[in-house]
């Protein structure tokens, strides 16, 4: 009676070991698939930075490869940022040195004008530098200043 009961309760294939293993594999696959679906749902609800942390991997090697690739991308981005910062720093130093040089050249020109102005005749229109600056016009086409011609005004007494 007990033998019949064991056969009937488990079905005809109750003692079949292959069938039991097949059932265990299917159950294991279903559990893994359920975990993957739960992870995918969580991933859909979280932002992209947290998605990388919820990936489901088949093996540790696959997880290691994925994280190594992520690390390489991060290191490449950091290297790129450092290169750009260095390049911008060099350009900034170059611009500052250009500005300093131009300021020195401007000071030299101003000092020369101050020295030479006293040597210009009083009856010449170049004796008044402010008047020359007001009358000068920038020409966009040629990219230079149009300065009035020097004129000597002779005054005649009656």
From TrEMBL:
Keywords from the named record: Coiled coil
Coiled coil: 57-87
Record has Coiled coil as a keyword: yes
Protein name (Swiss-Prot/TrEMBL): KIF17 protein
UniProt gene name: Kif17_0
């Amino acid at each position: 009676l007990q033998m019949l009961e064991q056969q009937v309760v488990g079905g005809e294939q109750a003692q079949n070991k292959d069938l039991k293993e097949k059932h265990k594999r299917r159950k294991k696959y279903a559990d893994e698939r359920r975990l993957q679906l739960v992870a995918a749902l969580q991933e859909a609800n979280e932002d992209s930075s947290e998605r990388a942390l919820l990936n489901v991997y088949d093996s540790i090697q696959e997880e290691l490869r994925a994280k190594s690739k992520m690390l390489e991308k991060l290191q490449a981005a950091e290297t790129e940022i450092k290169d750009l910062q260095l390049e911008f720093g060099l350009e900034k130093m170059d611009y500052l040195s250009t500005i300093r040089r131009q300021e020195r050249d401007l000071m030299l020109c101003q000092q020369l004008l101050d020295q030479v102005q006293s040597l210009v005749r009083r009856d010449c229109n170049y004796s008044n530098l402010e008047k020359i600056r007001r009358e000068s016009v920038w020409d966009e086409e040629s990219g230079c200043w149009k300065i009035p011609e020097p004129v000597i005004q002779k005054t005649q007494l009656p």
